[in-house]
Amino acid sequence: QKEVEQDPGPLSVPEGAIVSLNCTYSNSAFQYFMWYRQYSRKDPELLMYTYSSGNKEDGRFTAQVDKSSKYISLFIRDSQPSDSATYLCAMSGPWGAQKLVFGQGTRLTINP
Amino acid sequence: KAGVTQTPRYLIKTRGQQVTLSCSPISGHRSVSWYQQTPGQGLQFLFEYFSETQRNKGNFPGRFSGRQFSNSRSEMNVSTLELGDSALYLCASSLGTGAANYGYTFGSGTRLTVV
Q1: CA dihedral of A52, A35, B39, B106, whole degrees rounded to 10
Q2: Tens-digit pLDDT profile for residues B44-77
Q3: Which of B54, B14, B18, B15 is nearest to B34 (CA)?
Q4: DSSP character at residue B57
Q5: Residues A72-109 pLDDT 10s
Q6: Average pLDDT, chain A
Q7: Residue A32: its chain B contacts at CB < 8 A?
Q8: What number of CA atoms fall less than 13 Å from residue B42's CA on the CB side?
Q9: CB-CB: which of B44, B100, B106 is closest to A43?
Q10: Which of A20-29, A78-87, A88-97, B82-91 has the weakest average pLDDT?
């Protein structure tokens, strides 16, 4: 079993829809949770960063962490075609962790 | 401010050869981490270097090695290439070790194809 599980999709939704992307994990030591966005043939860029449980909102993006369920989510409101990309969840352990563990990435397409 | 620079961008090698990839981090960043990205496995951690020392290593065979120079530039070497080594190799730059917690700045990667 992988430490981080993420449905690779592909996921296709119409413009304006609310998108929900999710990851589950098995390592209870993970404390830092991130979402990266990777456009086709580009490098991953950090989108959202959260520590421990709770919600974080940034514009149209909301990241949720439920440590009790070992489940994290990224919500995209009012989705735009420019949001079409692969979204990767990533997480790391206590402060000082020297690596990120990534999910496989979900390929998302927003249709105009 | 210059980003993370990886060279070369594309590389084609034959089985059994060796290859060296280069990464120049953001100016002032002292930590360089390497990841392998494949469609089946996603992003997997190779190793992290900080102050010319390898601080952590992922579950890859000994054919994968690296080093870091005093100017923080890093090289990754893969010897005796196998077809399964075909992947996008990403370098990530950060200020200090343990900075996985900060999130990284990635380079654009080197796409290696082994034939």
Answers
A1: -110
A2: 999 999 989 998 899 999 999 999 999 999 999 9
A3: B54
A4: E
A5: 999 999 999 999 999 999 998 876 677 889 999 999 99
A6: 92
A7: 100-101
A8: 22
A9: B106
A10: A88-97
Of the candidate ranges A81-90, B11-20, B24-33, the one whose mean pLDDT is the lowest: B24-33
Tell me if B87 sits within 8 A of B36, measured CB to CB.
yes
Given a contact cutoff of 8 angstroms between Cβ atoms, the answer to whether B112 and B86 are in contact is yes
Start-to-end CA distance of chain B, whole Å, equals 37
Residue type, A25: Y
Min CA distance, A93 vs chain B (Å)? 8
Contact of A104 with chain B, judged by CB distance below 8 Å, is answered with yes
Residue B1 has pLDDT above 60, yes or no: no
Q: CB contact, 8 Å: A110 with chain B?
A: no
How many contacts, defined by CB atoms under 8 Å, are there between A and B?
60
DSSP E strands: which ranges in A1-112? 4-6, 11-14, 19-25, 32-38, 45-51, 54-58, 61-66, 71-76, 85-92, 101-102, 106-111
3-state SS, residue A92: strand
Q: Residue A18 half-sphere exposure, CB side, CA atoms within 13 Å?
A: 6
